[in-house]
Design brief:
Helices cover about 0% and strands about 50% of the residues. The radius of gyration is 35 Å and the shape is globular. The chain starts with a strand and ends in a 12-residue tail after the last strand.
């Protein structure tokens, strides 16, 4: 005789997806959706997320706040006015992520390079290498992801003779095609050889043409389209000719087409792949006519139009092009010098468009101060190219789009300057642009002592290597920090947003090549030696004054008491700081032998600005003021040894610690940059003199890789690597860079790390973060705990955002799978939310607010139970209820559901038996607590239906299969619109009480399932 007994199932511990589902304890759930734990041991429906607003347009990926205002970040920055329910476009923003790899390093100088990358991540790099007196031409293979060398550098082997021209490489089908110049019996030949991308088998060199006149840069070019490599080069025909051919993927070389009457010093090939015709555009520049031309052909290289002149802009060093929608856009690097000194180059890039029929657009200057560093490429119908800024002190590369906007800054102070020996390719892979570039990997001073044999006075020796660079355009998540009255944003360089417009933080460049000359008339300067320094300065919308690094001091000596000094200062042409008429000021400071501090010379009330950055290269300023006239003016900010301000590098990780901004250098992820200590009414100021190197080999396990995430906790800056955690503490240096008390990196004993900056969130117990092993807690005692084990089933999803909910004890993780995980750190319980697939979330007006992929913004609102138009429905699935152990023999008669009725609802109850998760019993519970509104008005007293039987919800559910090993209960709320009222709070559930009888300690097994 079975004795009936009751088993109470209390809701104590939330989700548990880590434990074997057959052995999850009663009271835990295998599935739990849309419930919160605001009251212990009770399930309560979460609030809904009604539509708050809609971001008007564009791609919006990150939601945050600035000065308490809701801010959406994508390809624009949008600011939300709550009262007016209005979004204002604050300007364009270019989200990007930068990474670099060393590709070629040795004791020699590489002077030209190109790269092609196959789908198996093998990168073939070709380059020219100088020993000073001779140049050799080589190729090599590396893994484009890890940088691992796959083949030693190898000399390019011609069919005969010697290689004498800079090579290029293309990916054609299953082959790398390396094209180069070979001199055979004193005749220049254009040749190629192939390398199989799967077997690395090298083919013999094949002649493309012996009618070829090479040049120092792009005397030939190619483009792969429709399984053909289209090649064009400068022919050596009498009178000159442009020659072209195509090599197909079976390595068949087709007939050469000849376009006579023109010669080319630089040439570009592009194909319009947006239509069915796939027209080929051959663009070239002729030094004999000083004009640029375009020839348009079909896929068989039969001429359609041209040569059509498209530009006449002086001497062109390089040229590149992209074609789409029936036209080609050509970019020409025009050689130019500063007007005040013809020895200082100041190239610019001009552009024009030409249609397939030969219609020419209007030529214009796209951007000044830079030259082409790679060929151009199209990504999502936008053209891009890498540009080079040449300078003695700050040579740099900039990734620029076809509208002249700067996307990324790379190799600041380590670039190789203008490219004079041929442009390499800019490759497109998904949303990533990849390229090889020359990088100054060794800088050494030259010995200029009087007893030295060195004859070059005062210089440096720079050795160049080759890096492989990648820039991903339109990254989905932006790292932001609100600091110094501005919003700082990660990207291809550090951005700042001041409530008016997004611009580069600080300045890309300081004033370069400042020139001063003295005159004996026109002023009040006495006879003595003077030094001048110049800064770019700008005031943001918050009243912060940004100052660039000062220019290198230049001296001049006057000889009379009425002298004046003329100062030529380059304009800042590489900047976003031209918006809304808020232009950059040029500020001059002067030191003299009798007044040995740098005082401001230029006027505060009538500042020197230069808004015409695309038409003028420099500004001329005349100094006529005596020492006494400037005494008491502003001192240059570096007075007293204050370190100079430098625009920091690209970064994907921003955080704050010790009243400073910290970031991880995207080009060297073992290097951290930190700002000067923050001062009231002063912006964040960074410097390349304030950096912190993290040795990747500090951990006991050896190399732990780069720093991928960071966050402050108490008196520590926690640094996360993929599988390791470190911290530093202490206080940093003053604004002179002295007196730093930062500790060495300290390893935290753990086996986890974090590569997702957006997953880090602070709770009273410490930092929660997503590792490769799930969501973990770094305790304030520096212990690590797998706190996310109960939601282990969600580990394959990536956390897009993590927020701590005000006035609650909750953290919510938005996942890319569309689910939101909720962790209650008071009850230590996990649950999940469905129905709110956000791409980013933040706290706005003390409420959880999220953005979705349709640019809709939703905000949690207490007392509402709709996610937009969808009702919030609570559901759960219990563990397998096996009261006689995992395979005991039990008889379950029925169970009770005890809860509280809050608003009209129905419950779907499903029961599965004997570890088969497919339910075999289904019942619908229709609560009779509800009484229709008396007089069809609202419920009297609002708390419960007037005149109803009360708000206790108590149901008995009979089990159809009483004899079983185990059973499982799933309860899902059903929204029934026939009630005629909005979706509401539904119900709360306080527990389940099961009535069972246990007969034996085990269950008999059928003979067919018995063996041994």
């Amino acid at each position: 005789m079975l004795t009936k007994q009751t088993v109470n199932i209390s809701f104590l511990e939330g989700l548990d997806t880590k434990t074997d589902p057959y052995q999850v304890d009663a009271g835990k759930f295998l599935a739990l959706s849309n419930s919160v734990f605001s009251t212990g041991k009770r399930l309560t429906k979460r609030s809904g997320f009604p539509l708050l607003t809609q971001v008007p347009s564009g791609i919006n990926s990150t939601l945050t706040t600035f000065n308490g205002d809701l801010t959406s970040i994508g390809n624009n920055i949008w600011a939300y006015s709550d009262g007016a329910n209005f979004w204002k476009n604050q300007g364009s923003f270019q989200s990007a992520s930068v990474s670099t790899l060393p590709a070629v390093r040795n004791s020699l100088n590489q002077v030209q390079c190109d790269v092609a990358i196959a789908s198996n991540n093998i990168a073939c790099i070709v380059y020219a290498e100088s020993t000073g007196s001779t140049t050799s031409y080589k190729w090599t293979m590396i893994d484009s992801v890890t940088g691992q060398s796959l083949m030693s550098p190898t000399l390019i082997a011609p069919s005969a003779g010697t290689v004498t021209g800079n090579p290029k490489v293309f990916l054609l089908g299953n082959y790398f095609i390396i094209v180069f110049t070979a001199t055979i019996s004193s005749v220049a030949n254009l040749e190629y050889f192939s390398v199989g991308i799967n077997n690395l088998v090298v083919g013999n060199a094949v002649s493309i043409s012996a009618v070829y006149t090479p040049g120092s840069n792009n005397a030939f070019d190619g483009y792969v389209s429709n399984n053909n490599l289209y090649l064009a080069w400068n022919g050596s025909d009498t009178g000159g000719a442009i020659r072209a051919t195509r090599l197909d993927s079976s390595l068949t070389l087709h007939n050469t087409q000849i376009f006579s009457g023109y010669s080319a010093t630089t040439i570009s090939v592009s194909v319009d792949e947006t239509g069915t015709s796939s027209d080929v555009y051959i663009s070239f520049y002729s030094s004999s006519t000083t004009n640029g031309y375009v020839i348009v052909t079909n896929q068989m290289l039969v001429k359609i139009s041209g040569p059509t002149q498209f530009i006449s802009s002086g001497s062109a060093l390089n040229l590149t092009s992209v074609a789409q929608n029936g036209s080609v856009q050509v970019f020409v690097e025009v050689t130019n010098n500063y007007g005040y000194d013809n020895t200082i180059p100041a190239h610019y890039i001009a552009t024009n468009t030409i249609s397939a029929s030969g219609t020419v657009g209007t030529a214009s200057v796209l951007i000044r101060s830079v030259g082409l560093a790679t060929k151009a490429a199209l990504l999502n119908n936008v053209s891009y190219f890498l540009a080079a800024y040449q300078s003695t002190y700050q040579p740099t590369y900039f990734l620029i789009n076809g509208s002249g906007q700067i996307i990324a800054k790379i190799a600041y102070e380590n670039g190789a300057g203008y490219v004079t020996q041929g442009l390499g390719s800019l490759l497109v892979s998904g949303t990533t642009l990849q390229f090889a570039y020359l990088y100054k990997d060794l800088v050494e001073a030259l010995n200029t002592q009087s007893n030295s044999q060195q004859t070059t006075a005062g210089g440096i020796y720079t050795q160049t290597g080759i890096n492989l660079g990648s820039v991903t355009i339109g990254v989905s998540q932006i790292s932001t920090v609100e600091l110094g009255n501005d919003l700082l944003l990660s990207g291809g360089f550090l951005w700042m947003y001041d409530g008016q417009s997004p611009v580069e933080q600080s300045f890309f460049l300081f004033p370069d090549n400042v020139e001063v000359t003295a005159s004996t008339t026109g002023g009040n300067l006495t006879a003595q030696q003077y030094y001048y320094q110049v800064t770019y300065e700008w005031c943001d919308n918050q009243g912060n004054i940004y100052r660039s690094a000062p220019s290198i001091p230049v001296s001049v000596t006057t000889t009379g008491s009425t002298s004046s000094v003329t100062i030529n200062v380059p304009s800042l042409r590489l900047t976003y700081k031209t918006i809304n008429g808020n232009f950059v000021k040029i500020v001059v400071y002067r030191w003299s032998a009798s007044q040995q501090n740098y005082f401001q010379v230029t006027s505060v009330t009538t500042p020197i600005i230069n808004p015409n950055v695309l038409t003028t290269d420099y500004v001329t300023i005349t100094d006529t003021l005596s020492d006494s006239a400037i005494s008491g003016n502003n001192l240059i900010y570096t007075t007293g040894g204050v370190v100079e301000n430098i625009n920091p590098p690209a970064s994907n990780v921003l955080t704050h610690f010790d009243s400073r901004l910290w970031l991880v250098d995207a080009e060297d992820q073992n290097l951290l940059w930190y700002s000067k200590p923050l001062v009231e009414a002063t912006p964040v100021e960074m410097s390349d003199l304030l950096t912190y190197y993290i040795d990747p080999n500090l951990a006991p396990s050896g190399n732990t890789g780069p720093v991928l995430a960071a966050s402050p906790m108490d008196d520590k800056l926690v640094l996360f690597k993929k599988d390791a955690i470190f911290y530093i503490n202490g206080t940093g240096p003053d604004s002179t860079g002295a007196n730093s008390q930062y500790s060495q990196p300290i390893f935290i004993t753990s086996t986890v790390g974090c590569s997702n900056q957006n997953s880090i969130v602070f709770i009273p117990q410490g930092l929660l973060f997503q590792s490769d092993k799930g969501i973990w807690l770094l305790g304030r005692d520096l212990s690590t705990n797998y706190i996310g084990a109960p939601v282990d089933a969600f580990n394959s999803a990536t956390v897009l955002s993590a927020v701590n909910i005000p006035q609650e004890n909750q953290v919510r993780f938005t996942l890319d799978s569309g689910t939101t995980l909720q962790y209650d750190y008071f009850y230590n319980q996990w649950g999940s939310y469905s129905g709110i697939p956000g791409t980013s979330s933040t706290i706005y007006n003390s409420a959880h607010t999220y953005l979705n992929s349709n640019n809709q913004v939703f905000q949690e609102t207490a007392g509402t139970y709709l996610d937009y138009t969808n009702p919030v429905l609570m559901s759960f699935t219990t563990s397998w209820l096996n009261f006689a152990n995992i395979q005991g023999y039990q008889r379950a008669f029925f169970f009770y559901l005890l809860g509280t009725w809050l608003s009209p609802h129905k419950l779907l109850v499903q029961i599965a038996y004997d570890y088969n998760s497919s339910p075999t019993q289904t019942v619908v519970v229709s609560p009779n607590n509800y009484s229709p509104n008396w007089g069809q008005d609202l419920n009297w007293g609002s708390a419960q239906a007037w005149g109803g039987p009360g708000n206790i919800e108590n149901w008995k559910i009979n089990l159809q299969r009483q004899k079983c090993e185990a059973f499982q209960i799933t309860v899902s709320e059903i929204y029934d619109p026939t009630y005629g009222v909005p979706a509401g709070a539904g119900f709360t559930l306080s527990g389940i009480n099961v009535v069972v009888g246990i007969k034996k300690g085990y269950r008999p097994i059928a003979a067919a399932l018995t063996t041994g």
